[in-house]
Amino acid sequence: MNATTHAELHHHAPAPRLKTGPRPSSKKALWTGRILSGIAVLFLLFDAVGKLLQIPEAQQGTVELGYPVSVLFGLGVVQLACLAVYLTPRLSVFGAILWTGYLGGAVATHVRVGNPLFTHLLFPVYIATLLWLGLWLRDARLRAVLPLRATDT
């Protein structure tokens, strides 16, 4: 057996340098993310206000989907709360999760009443995609957790 020192036995290769954190968004990605998020937010705000004001189109749509008009105000409040969470930078991922649940319920409603696939049933999916993609382009931490491809380790 060779005579090796304690230091030689416990010698490790130097640890790889860790990155200081996720890379920030480029200006192009940041603005694209803001625009995509903005489109979704404006649509959802318009929808929430229509429900809160109980405009005739919102009432008619609600009845056609099989819900009583009495649910409109509550749905509008829920939508405004989800928007407030999504628009708060520290809570935006949680807001996107809340919206995903809410919009999933909208998909289920359209399935239940047999609405057309691309114009009705998938419309909430389009909005959720805008919310998530816009957030992903704006938030480096989210890109680090949900990369488009696996990183080398």
Mind explaining what this structure looks like?
The chain is mainly α and 153 residues long. The chain is 68% helix and 0% strand. The model has no long low-confidence stretch (mean pLDDT 89).
Mean pLDDT comes to 89
Inertia-based shape: elongated
H/E topology pattern: HHHHHHHH
Taking pLDDT < 50 over at least 5 consecutive residues as the criterion, the unreliable ranges are none
**What share of residues are in beta strands?**
under 5%
**What about the largest sheet?**
none
Please report the distance between the alpha carbons of the first and last residues: 35 Å
The structural class is mainly alpha
| Count of DSSP H/I helices | 8
The helical percent reads 55-70%
Radius of gyration: 24 Å
How many extended strands? 0
